[in-house]
Amino acid sequence: MKTGRKDLKIPMAGKSLAYSKGALEFESLETDFILKKEEGEVAYYIFGISNAGDESTIYNFEVKEVGGDIERAELIEFSSATPYEEDYSNLFRFSGTVTAYNEQKQQVSIGIFDEGVNPECPSTYPPGEGGGGGGGEMPVITPGWPPDPYNPIPPDWPQWPGSPPDSGGGGESGGNIPPNTAGCGEYMLAIFFYENSNGDDVGLWVNECGHQYFGSQPKSYAIMTTNKIGPHCNDGSGIIILPGNPKDTPCKKIKEQRENEDFKEKIQDLQSKTGLKKETGYTHRSDGSSTYHDNASATDEKNTLHLPKATLSNNKNITCFTHTHVDDFWYTNSEGIYRPKEGIKIFSPADINYFMQLVINAQEEGRPLDSVCGIMISSMVNYQIRFTGNQYQIKTFTKAQLDIFRVEFEKYMRYRKDKSKSLEFGFLKFLDEKMNLKGVVLYRMNDDNSTTEIKLNSNKSETTESKCP
Amino acid sequence: MKNFLIIFVLFTISCKSQTISLETAAQCMQQNPTFPCPPFNYVKDVNNVLNKYVGDWKGTFNGLTYEIRFIKKEYQGEDIKDDRLIGRIRITTAPSGGFAYLTIFDNFGETDDAKTGFTGSRLQSDLNGYMAYFVGEAPEGCINYGMVYITVLDSSPNQMKLDFFPDYDTVVEDCPTSFQTTFPVKQVINLTKQ
Predict the structure, then answer these.
(1) How far A406 CA lies from chain B's nearest CA (Å)?
(2) pTM for this structure?
(3) Is B30 a domain residue?
C-alpha cells in the first residue's frame, strides 16, 4: 500500500536510520495494517508503517477525523529511550519522545514521557474512557484500583468483577500472552473482531491494569495505551501499531519459498526419489545453503535417513528439513512370501521431534519461530509444518517418549491411510492429544502451487481448511 | 418420549452399519484401493481369521530360540475400534556348555497388554498374512521398529512363518555397526504351535 502522496516529504532528525538519513518520503512509506477507532464524533485512522523504524523507533501514520472532516494527518515517531522489548511491553511504561510531523514536514507536536507519564499532561484515569481532549473524570481510588503495587487488593477482598486469576506471566492454560505485564493478570478478549486463518481470536485484549492491545493471543499487532502515549496531550487514538507485518504469516513465507527456483528444484528432485527404498532429503540453513542427505550405503536393514544433529552448535542454523516418505512396495522374504512394506505419508513422531529441535534453535538464535519448516514429500500429498505457537509451547521429546509415540502413532494411523483428509485429521489429533504439542500447523502443498492450511476445528472433531491467499 | 425412542433406534442402526471386516479394511485401506472404504468405526474379525494365530509358538533361528505368544482382543482402540492380536516375545540362546540359556529379550512378564510393544495391526491386503507392529529398544541413531509379518496356512495350522521389516524414519546419530534388530530382517523364522 502506498500513500500516493508524492508531494510530501518528512524530515527525520536525530535517528541513524537508513530511512532517516535523508528525508523519509511519504511516497515511499508502506503500510499494510490500518485500524480505525471511533470515539463518538471523532474517528482515528492509524496506519502501521512497515518499512521504517528500528529497535527503538516505531512509526505510525495517524489521521484524526471529526464529524467526517479530516482535522489532522501526521506521521508519528515513537522513539524509545531503550530498545523495545520483544513483546513491546515497555510501551506500557514508555520512556522517550513521541513526535508528530505534519504533511509539510514540520514537527508539530512532541510529548516527552517518563515511565508512561507525560508530566505536562493531566492524567486520564480510568482507562478506556474519556476521549478526544475532554479527559476522564477523576478516578475513584479504592483498594486494588487502580491496580498498583502500592495499592494492593487486600487478601480478603473479592477480585473486581470479571478479573481472571493472576497468571503471574506464566505460560499455563494456553497463556501465550504478549505483552507481558507481570502482576496485571491475564489478557482477556474484551472485543472480538474476527477469527484469523490460524483460528485465533483477533480483537482487543485487556488485562486487569487496563492495558490493552489489539491482535490475537499469540501475536499482538497493535496496543492501546491507557494514558494515550502520543504527541498531543491525551488527544489521539492512543493506539500504536507495532512493527511486524501481521500478514507475514506462514502462508506468506511458504508462498515465497515455493516461488524460489532453487527450492522448486529440490522438491522436484525429491519427488522423483519417493520410489527409492530409502528416505532422502535436504537440510536448509539460515545462510541460504542446503545439504543433500542420502544414506548412500543403505541396505534393507539400515536405511534410515540420518540428519545432522540439530543440538550441535554448528547445526543451530538449520531452518528447514525436507525429506521423502517412500512409496509402498512389496518385498519377498527369505522363503519367497510377499509382504507389503507400507508407510504413513505424513510426518512421524521422529520428524516432529527433529522439527521442534529446529524451533528451539530458532528461539535461541532470535529467528522467527514460524521461519522453521519441516517438509515431507510423498507420492500421495506433500506437506509442510510450521510452528505458530509461543515459546512456552516449544518442547522436544526423549527417545523413550518417542518409542511410546511410535507405538501409539501406528495404532492411531493404521486405518487412516487411504484418504489424505483422514490422515491429516489423525496426525493433528495425535499431535494435540498424544504428544500434547500445540502450535504446530499443517500445510498441504497442492500440486497447483497453492497451499492449504489445515487445523483441528474447535471441538477437535474434524479438520478445517483455509487456502493461503 | 416418542421422539426419544426414534432417535435412539436410529442411533443404534447407524452404529451397527459402520462395522467392516478385517478383510475389507485390509483391501480398501490403501493409497489407491480397488474399492474405497465404506464409512466405518469398527474393524471386526467377522470371520475369525485371527484365531489361528492365538496361542504359544516356538522356533529357532541362527542359534536363538524365539517364543511368541499371541492373544486376541476385541473392540480395541480409540475413535476407530478394531479386533487385534497382542504379542509377547521371549528370545533366548540355546543351552550350551553347561549353561541353561541366556535371555536376550523377554516381555512374557508384562501384564499390561498396551505395553508389550508388539501390537497386531492389519491383515495384508492380499490376505496372505497378518501384520503386527513391533517397537523394541535401540541405541540413538538405530531403528528397531517396524512390521512383523506372520502367516499360518490353513493347511498346516501348527506352523507359523514370521519375518520383520524395519520402518524408514528420521534419526540424528550414526547407528553403531554392531547393532542388530530384535527380529532378523526379511529372514523367515519358522515356529511350531506349542
Answers:
(1) 7
(2) 0.66
(3) no
